[in-house]
Every structure is written in structure tokens, then in C-alpha cells.
Amino acid sequence: MAGLTLRDVRKTYGGAEVIRGVDLEIAEGEFTVFVGPSGCGKSTLLRMIAGLEEISDGEIEIGGEVVNDVEARDRGVAMVFQSYALYPHMTVAENMGFGLRLAKVPKPERAKAVEEAARILQMEHLLDRRPAQLSGGQRQRVAIGRAITRQPEVFLFDEPLSNLDAALRMDMRMELAALHRDLKATMIYVTHDQVEAMTLADRIVVLDKGVVQQVGSPLDLYDRPVNVFVAGFIGSPRMNLIEVRVDRADAAGAVVSGADLAERAIPGLRVEAGETLTLGIRPHALRAVPDGPLRGTVDLIERLGHETVAGLRLPGGAQVTAALGGRTPLKIGEPATLDFDDEELHVFGPDGEAIRFRD
Amino acid sequence: MKRWIATTPWASRGLILILMALTLLPFLSMLSAALAPSGTYPSGLEWPEAPAWGNFARAWEVANMGALLWSSTLIVLGTVPAAVLFATMAGFGLARLTAGRGRWFYLVFVLGLTLPFEAVITPLYYEILALGLLNTRLAIILPLIGLFMPFSVYWMRAHFLNVPADLSEAAQLDGARRWQEFLLVQVPLARPAIMSLSILLFLWTWNQFLLPVVLVQDPDRRTMAGALGAFQGQWGTDIPLLCAGSLIILAPTVILFLIFQRQFVAALLQVAVKG
Ligand SMILES: Nc1ncnc2c1ncn2[C@@H]1O[C@H](COP(=O)(O)OP(=O)(O)OP(=O)(O)O)[C@@H](O)[C@H]1O
Ligand SMILES: [Mg+2]
What we know:
The complex is a heterodimer of chains A (359) and B (275). Chain A is elongated and about 75 Å long. In chain A, α2 packs across α3 (107-120) and α3 packs across α4 (136-149). Chain A has helices at residues 42-50, 92-102, 107-120, 136-149, 166-183, 194-200, 218-223, 228-233, and strands at residues 4-13, 16-26, 31-35, 57-62, 65-66, 77-80, 154-158, 186-191, 203-208, 211-216, 240-250, 253-258, 261-267, 276-281, 287-288, 294-303, 307-313, 319-325, 335-339, 345-348. Chain A contains eight helices and 20 strands. With 359 residues, chain A is α+β, with helices and mostly antiparallel strands. In chain A, the strands form four sheets. Chain A has a six-stranded mixed β-sheet, sandwiched between helices. The two termini of chain A are 38 Å apart. Chain A folds into two domains: 4-233, Rossmann fold; 240-348, CATH 2.40.50.140. By secondary structure, chain B is mainly alpha-helical. Chain B has one domain: MetI-like fold (Orthogonal Bundle). Helix content of chain B is 72%, strand content 1%. Chain B contains 13 helices and two strands; from the N terminus they run αααααααααααββαα. Chain B has helices at 2-7, 10-34, 54-62, 65-97, 103-113, 121-131, 138-162, 165-173, 178-189, 191-206, 210-215, 239-259, 261-274; strands spanning 232-233, 236-237. Chain B has a two-stranded antiparallel sheet. In chain B, a hairpin with a 2-residue loop joins β1 (232-233) and β2 (236-237). In chain B, α3 (54-62) crosses α12, α4 (65-97) runs antiparallel to α10 (191-206) and α7 packs antiparallel against α10. Chain B is globular. The interface between A and B is medium-sized, with 22 and 17 residues.
């Protein structure tokens, strides 16, 4: 097992820079998730760690050794592909034992390692089948098993669950979490699904346009997003973002208002009068009240039983989503008023960076 | 099969029967000609009153078929495995291991595709002469391997291009060197393509006529198709014997076809699709 260090890692295709200077420290045994929108460079970064893409600039260290010029096969990493990439002409056991066979591990030992991995993944009964005779979930298991048998320093996963249906995805997610607990191995996991990121990660790396936006534990990112992008990306339903102007500001705090928000004092916030800010409020922080700073017309109601997701159209045109109690008596087309606590408020400056004003 | 007949409309069934008749007609007329008395000039499709089955035996003797069969087999064994091996390796290399400048190599091969066989036969003659190989089977085998390369490489490269890159990457991460990936992953997966190519090359080698006739004087070192020349004697062509001989020459390919029917059809379909 080994940790990783990335130092100013860059990747250019032709003239286009798709990874733009990534610095990252991944501790031994950590479960790290790369998350970000499609095309942000997650796979590229992962493949550079695997040794499948050349590193245009910067350094990658695995277990204290710079691996820029080390072949993929010698990096001690195993990867689980989105497409599974199982060898169609080999049985499940042969697929899983292929790496050991190449490493000239004697047959009995190989068989033992394969059986052990099959036991962990509960698929002993599948060992003699070919990939074509397996379901999607079973194939994914085999792909993970193939990684396990090699006992790599680092496990890499590139959206391994995205071809599975929702229920299976949840099962596999829990199994992956259990697997990490059992093996205590360093794992890097790429996904664009922030629920997967939140549930699996020790640490999340949020990427956008080839740049790391924020690194932190799931709750860190949820509670203290450093910019509008992370705020909008982490959390479901998405955080509501409302534009306001600073009316008055003094040492005690500021008073803001906007087309969508009635006047509101924010104690402790240090800004200049006249500045434009973005307020961020999570849907779960909103409450339906008889009188509050957010007034609008209900244009969406989704009753999920344990909660009701309501959409409000505000007078300024913004759309606000609120996750309310399961029995909220709101009705579509009727006016409603929402309120929130100061502790739940996020404030972002004109450049999109978070402005801290509590603690 | 039964189902197919039961559910296919009469019109298409009739059409297929007509097509079958049209395809078989030349063979039937060859058979009827082959059974006419030796030395006569049979007129079209007409069953002779006294079928001269002996013509087959005579054709076999006249053309020295036993030796030719052996010779053809040697030529096929010398040509096809080597050509398939080279093409598989080159196809993999061109599909997977080259980028940028390497593409020029491929263009050279593609250019070879446009070269008509007949255009190179004269230079080839002098080349073989210079090598001192004239009148040996190598005079057929070596040029054939070369002449087959453009198509074969193109064929195998097209196959390897279609293998998902993931598999290759998975093999690398599993610790495979390039040649291990090639032997243990790529070649097993390429078996259908290799099979089709082998069948096509076998057909083309077996039916090779021009090259043996030009480069090999001794008829016993030619391919079977080259044996057809034996029936053009000083006294004109013996049509019944020629037909009987042709049918004998056809026989091995027909037998092979019956054995590898499915692969044959797949191979020919692929040629049709890929051009
Ligand atoms: N071989 C390539 N040549 C040129 N550009 C590439 C190549 N591979 C990737 N890119 C570009 O690099 C960027 C990052 O791609 P990457 O596959 O890493 O995205 P991703 O974050 O994994 O997205 P997704 O969630 O859709 O898988 C994209 O804009 C893509 O167009
Ligand atoms: Mg990707």
C-alpha cells in the first residue's frame, strides 16, 4: 500500500490544456473521490496516475517514488474500468488470475488468491463462467475481483457503477465501502455522481475545467464550500443561489436585499456597501413560515413521503428549491414564504469565492 | 431450416431457387462436358448417353494430379501461415503501436492494394531469376506472401482497430508486456479475423494460376490451378479432360467450404462490407 503525491500535474492535448496544474496529497489507505462535471478531466487525471496517459508536466509520486517514466504495469496500480474491460475469451477465474499468471505466480497460489477474492465478493459460483454469461453487476464484481487479486498499491476506479441500475448501484456502493474497510487500501475513485462521492469518500477532490476547486471531507465540502461552483455541485438538491446587493455595512455586519429577497441583516459579515453578493442556502435549510424574507409562488411540489421538495418562483425570476417536511400543506400556484437561519447561510463575493463571516 | 421454409413467402423462395439454378448451371455443364468422350467437342448442357467417368481418372493421370495436389499443399502451407502471421503482427502494430509518423507505413500498404497483380509479374520474374529461385516452389511462395500483405495487413489492422482500447489498457495494468498482451489477449480475440483471412488466402493461393505458369517451368511444382495448362496439348485443347480436371481441382476447395461453411460466409461477407 502506498500514498500518492501529485505536484503541479498538467496535461495538454494538442494546444488545449485539460489538466491545469493539480497539486494533491493522498495518504496511504485513504479513499479519495474525484468528482466534477463531465469533461472536467477526472478520467484524464486518473489515467495519468495509472500510467495510461503521458504526464505533460509536473510529477506524480506513488509510494515515495516518482513514476512519470515508469510503465503502467510497473506502477503497482490496478484499475476498474467503466466498461469493465474483462477479457471475453477467459473465464471469470482466468480473468481474475491473469495478472498473477503474468507475474509467474504458481498455479496453486494463483487459485487461492482468486478464490479469496471471489469469497470477498461472494461470487465463487461464477468462477467458471465467461464474461458474456454474466449480468452487468456480476461483471463489475469480476472487474473488482481482478483488481483485488493483484494486491496493488493503489486501486483506481473510473465511474465503475455508472452502467448499473439505481438499486444495484446502491448495493455495490455499500460493498465498495466495505471492501475499503476490509482491505484498508489506497483507493481513488472517479465519479460525477455526488451522492457516490459523499457516501464513499474519506476525502473528496472537486474538479472543474482541469483545476482542483476544493479538497476536503464530504461534510467539510458540504458545510464550507470555498466557492459557488463547489456549493452548487455538492449536495442534493442543489444549493439555492440568490443575487443580492449590500445596502448598508458596518462593523456589526451588513444588510442585504435584492429582487428576490426582502431586506435581511447578516451579522458579522464584513463587506462594502454597494457590492453584489451571492447568497447560498441549501434546500434543507429552508422552512415554510407565515412571514419570511423569501416570497414566491409555488410551481413545483414533489411529495416523497419523508419530505416534500417544493419549487418557488421568486419575483426577481430566481427559482428556489426547498426540502420541507413530509406533510407540508403547500399547493401549486399558491403563494408561500420561506425563512432560514443565519448559520445556514453561505455568502459568496462577486468573484464567486466564499466569504467567511462566522466562527 | 424447416421454420425458414415454412415462413418464407413463395416469391422469395422461387427467386432463391432460380438463383441456385443459375449458380449451379455452369458446374452442371462442366460436369456434363467432363463426361463426354475424350477428344470430342461437347455442345452445351447435354447429358452424354455413355457417361465417360473414366475421364476423371485420365485427367488425374494426364495432369499428374497426385504430384500437383502435394505441390499445391506445400505451396499453401508455405504461404498462408507465414502471411497470416506477418499480417497479424503488422496489423496489430499499425493499429495500436504507431502514431503520427507511423501512419505513413500504413499508407504504403494501402498503396499496395491498388497495385494490380499482373503489373508486377515481369519485374518479379527477373527478381526471382536473380535470386536463383526460378523453377522452385519458393518462386511462388515468397512473391505470394508479399503480394498478400497489403490486403492482409489492411484486414488485420481493421480488426485490431475495433478491439476496445480498454482491453489493451487492462492487460497493461495487469502487468502484460506488449508481446504478452498480443499473444494472450489480442490474438485469441482475433481468431475469427485470422480464420477468415486464412480461408481467403487459402482460396487465392489454391487458385493461383499466373504466378506458377510464369515462374515455374516444371508443372509438378505448380499449384493445381496451374495444372490446367497440361490440357492444352499440341493437338488442341481436350475439352472433356479440361472440364474433368477443373472439377478435380475444385474439389478441395469445395470440401474445405463444406467443413468451414460458416467461417467462409462470414469472411466473404466481411470482404463485401469492408470493400
Ligand atoms: N485523447 C484526447 N484528445 C483530446 N482531448 C481529449 C482526449 N481525451 C480527453 N480529452 C479532453 O479532455 C477533457 C477531459 O476529459 P476527461 O475524459 O478526463 O473528462 P471526465 O471528467 O472524465 O468526463 P466524464 O465525466 O464525461 O467521463 C475533455 O474536455 C476531453 O474532451
Ligand atoms: Mg471520464
